[in-house]
Design a protein that fits this description.
about 290 residues; alpha/beta; ornithine cyclodeaminase, domain 1; Rossmann fold; 2 domains; seven-stranded mixed beta sheet; five-stranded parallel beta sheet; 9 helices; about 30% helix
Length: about 290
Amino acid sequence: MCAHQNNARFASRHNIGAPSAAPQPWRCELSSGKGVLFVPYHQTLDLLTVDDAFRVCEEVYQMHANGSVVLAVPPSFKLDVAEGFNNHWHVKGAFLKDLPATGIRLYNYYDDGVRNTVGMLSCARYIMLSDPHTGEPLAIVDEHWSYVLRSAASAVVACKWLGPKAPKVLGLVGIGSMGTAALRCLTRMYKFDEIRCTSRRVETRNAFAEKWSRETGVKVVAKENIEDVVRGADIVVGGTTSGEIVSREPWVKPGATFISLARRELDPAGWSKMDKVVVDSWEFNMLACRASG
């Protein structure tokens, strides 16, 4: 890639959602003269808001219902190199006929069973877009911000029709990038009286509670264990990187909504006891389940 500013490539990548002076995008000129736009992380923070994410998710769900979304075959390609490296590549592609737009999203992360960088800025995560009419490349976009915001919004937006009408207590199990994005989305939609949170480390959850109490104007309480977060909450969000079952169905009160943003946020037997279970794509989730064994 060619660059207008050499330091654009090395912009700080420590805090998701903490805007700073945005670097100028890179543009590499092609023979056609159109060029390829590179959008760095800090610039994406100003280009996508929570309201944008809600709107886009609703629009794309409608496209799915209309049958105008074409997914890659297979929908997800994975390269997992465990022994000695603990390295994982995932690639997904799609074509949105209604826009029209086509591209792939690709990300690489480290996971040794103890440390998982899938939601961190230290992992590679990009979207590559091209012109569906000509195949010419259009843009390479850092996906860290859009990934967490889109993932949270795509689940939270369903609360408009399926969630409690006036929830007062929110429980956050996991307060990494995904849990934080869910908090941003849910506090945009509802006025809570109390927000509970928990994480593995005491200092992390205490700092989170202090920060978001100031940001939201709502009391955020750090809890020592997951059960104390889930019991009595009107909405619970599970967004951890744990490989073990995190929450238990008996903890979820009648009438509550449980939002799972990861694989093992609720005990498997618990899902059958829910009044209604909604996923973005049964087909894609079944394929993912078979692929993971």
